[in-house]
Amino acid sequence: MTPSSNQFLLPDLLAACPLDGGVNPHYEKGAAESRAWINSYNVFTDRKRAFFVLGSNERLVSRAYKYADFEQFRTCCDFVNLLFVFDEISDEQTGKDALSTGNIFLNAMRYSHWDDHSLFSQMTKESVFRKRLMCLFGPKATARFLRNWETYCASVITEAELREKGKILDVDAFITLRRENSAVRLCCSLIEYCFGTDLPDEVFEHPVFLEIYWAAVDLDIYSYDMEQSKGISGNNIVTVLMKNRHLTLQEASDYVGAHCQELMNRFISAQACLPSWGTSVDSEVAQYIQGLGCWVKGNLDWSFETQRYFGVQHLVVKETLLVTLRPSERPEELDSDSDIE
Predict the structure, then answer these.
(1) Which residue did the predictor score with more confidence, 170 or 149?
(2) Quick check: 103 and 153 in contact, CB under 8 A?
(3) pLDDT at residue 341 is higher than 50
(4) 256, 238 in Cβ contact below 8 A?
(5) 334 pLDDT more than 80
(6) Rg (Cα) of the chain, in Å, rounded?
(7) Which has the closest alpha carbon to 67: 288, 301, 299?
(8) Tens of pLDDT along 288-325?
C-alpha cells in the first residue's frame, strides 16, 4: 500500500512485541470510581471532557498494571488521570503559566500540609488519593518518585517554553527531554507501589538495569497524528526527525519503527546480563522488569483500543496501520477551563 501525501504507515510494533498482555480484573469497578472522582472537579469544558473520556486512561492503567490489587489499581487510575489533566492543560499554556501549574502540582504532592486552595492543589493532595499513594511506597521508592515528579514538572515547563518560541530540539536533546516530559518514568515508579517493593538505589544505577529501563521508557511512537492536529507536534520524535534529518513523514515513521524494534530487542536481551544483588533483591528486580514489560505491551494495546491517538478510526488503523492525518483543529476548538489555579 502506497500512502498519499496526507497519510503514513505505522510500524507494526504489536506484531513485533513478544510480551504478554492482559487486563486488570478490577478494571470495571476501579475505572468507574476513578472517572467519577476526576469528573467531580469539573476541570474541562464539555468538549475537552469528551476527549478525555474517549482516551480511556483507565484502560491504559488496566493493561499497564494488570497485576495490581484493587486499592493499588484504583490509586494508579487516579494518578494517571491526574497526569493526563496536567498534560492537557499545560499543552496550551505558556512557559510562565506552566511553571505556575507545575509548582502547584509538585508542592501539593511533596508537602502533605501545603495548600494554596486551588483546584489542582485539591485534586493532587486530596486526602484519600494521596494517602493511598504514599502509604505503600518505601523510603527509597518514595525518594525516586518525588525526584521523577520534580523532573517531570520541570520538563513540561521546558516543553511549554519551547512551544512558545516555536523551537524544535535536535534528536539527542529531544530524547533527553522526552524521557522526562512523557511522564513514563512517573508511571514506572508506580510499579514499586503496586508490588510493595523498595529497590536499592544501586539497582537503578547499574548500567545493565538502566539499559532495560530506558528501552522501556523510550518506546513512544503513536501520538504524532493527534499532536499535529492540535498544533503541538514539536514535542514529537517524528517532527524532530523530519526537521533535523530532513526526512519525509513516512521515512521518519520508518526510522522510529526500526529504533523501537531495536529497543524491544534490547529490553529482552539485556535481562540475561543482569548481575545478582542477592535472592531477595533479585526477586524484586524481576518483578520490576515484569512491570516494565506490562507497561510496554499495555501502552501498545491501549494506543489502538481508544480514540486518543487515532480517533474513531482506531480499529481500522490497527488493522491497516495506515494513518490519514487529521486536519488542524481551530483555535476555538482547543479551549479549556482556566479555573485550575
Answers:
(1) 170
(2) yes
(3) no
(4) yes
(5) no
(6) 19
(7) 288
(8) 999 999 999 999 999 999 988 998 999 999 999 999 99
Identity at 118, one-letter amino acid code: S
> What is residue 93's DSSP assignment?
S
**Location of C-alpha cell 492543589:** 121
Yes or no: say if 124 and 109 are a contact pair by the CB < 8 Å rule: yes
- 3-state class of 234 per DSSP? helix
Q: Is 68 a residue whose pLDDT tops 70?
A: yes
CA–CA gap between residue 267 and residue 175 (Å, rounded): 17
How many Cβ atoms are within 10 Å of 12's Cβ, its own excluded? 12
Direct distance between the N- and C-terminal alpha carbons of the chain, in angstroms, rounded to an integer: 49
- Is 237 in contact with 249 (CB distance < 8 Å)? no
The whole model's pTM is what?
0.90
Look up residue 252 and give its three cell numbers: 521518519
- Phi and psi of 337, rounded to 5°? -65, 150
Grid cell of 125 as nine digits: 493532595
247-256 tens-digit pLDDT: 999 999 999 9
**Which ranges constitute the DSSP H helices of the chain?**
13-16, 27-39, 46-55, 57-64, 70-90, 95-110, 119-125, 127-135, 139-165, 171-181, 184-195, 201-205, 207-217, 224-229, 237-244, 249-269, 279-305, 314-320
CA distance 54 to 49: 9
Cβ neighbors of 130 (< 8 A, separation 6 or more) are 109, 112, 124
9 beta partners? 322
Buried b (16+ CB within 10 A) or exposed e, 137-148: beebbbebbbeb
pLDDT for the residue 45 = 66
The residue with greater pLDDT, 83 or 276, is: 276
